[in-house]
Amino acid sequence: MSASVSRRTFLGIAGGAASVLGLVACGGNDAATSGDDASAASNDSSDKTYIVATDTTFAPFEFTNDANEFVGIDVDILAAIAADQGFTYELNSLGFDAAVAALESNQADAVIAGMSITEERQEKYDFSDPYYDSYVCAAAAEGGDVSSLENLNGMTVACKTGTQSASWAESIAEE
To answer: Rounded to two decimals, what is the model's pTM?
Structure first.
């Protein structure tokens, strides 16, 4: 495999493994889930339906299945919280950056998505307790051009903006 394929592999794994998952700005939420979950929650609480934004491209945490339904660990957690706390929600798949922008512009009540909890973000958002710890890692094709971080010198490495892996990559870029 070429070095660019190795970089893509590196980027995909590093970006995927780089987040701490949390429900941001816990205001309650409804998802485009089965009617049973939403109706059970609506019997217990007010008539307000919370708007929850997400990025459904982060399997197994949140993604869209073959039936075009939102599924995953985060979706299940959200449904369980809504049932327990008695609220309804509408889950909107916006992509990560747009989900955060929707929260900041009051177009969403909460975000459920993989997000690293940083001091800067804690100043802006009210996080739930984290329920998954991750780390930055890298992978490259066996026998490829990349076998160590030093092999990345002079190469372009891409990471998803705003992720723990992007912060890490920036921190070692000049080393």
So the answer is: 0.64
